[in-house]
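can u do me a favor
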């Protein structure tokens, strides 16, 4: 109102003209606000995606690609670094097909070795452990070579790795298989000429419920304290009273009921969905390329006879 009064108080035709323009503008604005709701044209409506049209992210992604999820510790969280690492990991996967595998799967890794004949080496073994996230993700393979247990730790996105192939896809009962170090060698022996076994599409990953019988003590770790389901302790093993007493003191049976501890050690589902929705298209394209690669068979030219 102060502005309008100042305009009307001006002398001359210019002030009156400005006042008329301002008055008409105010009338049009009030008329649009007072008037009832108008029906929007179909072209002006913004299409809203229904729940069925949204991008359906498979739940198995969080188990297939655990390294894409960031470290749950807030001290190591950095949104920009995590996004750049995911871009690097997807770029690396376009050159080397990293298959789906779990603890207990049998893998074959071909990598560059400057001291090997042909500058290339290959190792086959069972995955006994995998860990870390981002570009620092790693896994350990174990096999028996010349009667001696051999373990090799690989960084998943190491540029020296040329090929990773899953020869047998399966899971085990425990989150790690480090106890194979204290088990007979037969549980860790696999042929380097092993042929891959493919599962039919849509088949659930089988769980190998084999229970490993441990050797007699001494052991590398105190396996009896880890609540492992895949081991059998020989009845001839006798634990000392001091070891049993310390085991009871170190036991933490309430941890499985600590919801806050579980929350601090995991990434919330909302964050997981946001991450996988960002890389869903690239992962789907990589899965299609991997599926085509599986069905490819090398052409063997027939030999002439006679």
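np, heres the sequence
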């Amino acid at each position: 109102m102060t502005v309008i009064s100042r305009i009307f108080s001006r002398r001359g035709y210019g002030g009156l003209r400005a006042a008329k323009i301002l008055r008409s503008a105010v009338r049009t604005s009030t008329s649009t606000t007072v008037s009832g709701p108008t029906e929007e044209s179909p072209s002006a409506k913004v299409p809203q995606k229904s729940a069925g049209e949204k991008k359906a992210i498979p739940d198995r992604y969080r188990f297939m690609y655990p390294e894409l999820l960031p470290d749950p510790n807030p001290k190591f969280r950095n949104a920009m670094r995590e996004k750049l690492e995911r871009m690097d990991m997807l770029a690396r996967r376009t050159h080397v097909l990293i298959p789906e595998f779990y603890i207990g799967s049998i893998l074959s890794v071909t990598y560059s070795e400057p001291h090997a004949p042909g500058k290339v080496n290959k190792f086959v073994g069972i995955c006994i452990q995998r860990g870390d996230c981002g570009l620092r993700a790693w896994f350990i393979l174990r096999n028996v070579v010349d009667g001696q247990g051999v373990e090799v730790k690989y960084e998943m996105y190491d540029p020296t790795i040329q090929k990773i192939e899953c020869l047998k896809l399966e899971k085990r009962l425990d989150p790690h298989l480090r106890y194979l170090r204290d088990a007979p060698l037969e549980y860790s022996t696999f042929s380097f000429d092993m042929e891959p076994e493919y599962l039919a599409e849509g088949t659930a990953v089988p769980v190998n419920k084999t229970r490993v019988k441990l050797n007699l003590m001494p052991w590398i770790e105190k396996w009896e304290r880890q609540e492992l389901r895949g081991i059998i302790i020989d009845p001839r093993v006798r634990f000392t009273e001091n070891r049993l007493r310390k085991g009871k003191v170190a036991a933490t049976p309430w941890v499985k009921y600590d919801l806050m501890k579980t929350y601090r050690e995991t990434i919330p589902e909302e964050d997981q969905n946001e991450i996988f929705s960002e890389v869903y298209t690239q992962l789907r394209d990589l899965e299609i390329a991997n599926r085509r690669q599986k069905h490819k068979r090398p052409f063997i030219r027939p030999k002439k006879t006679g």
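The mean pLDDT is 82. hope that helps!!
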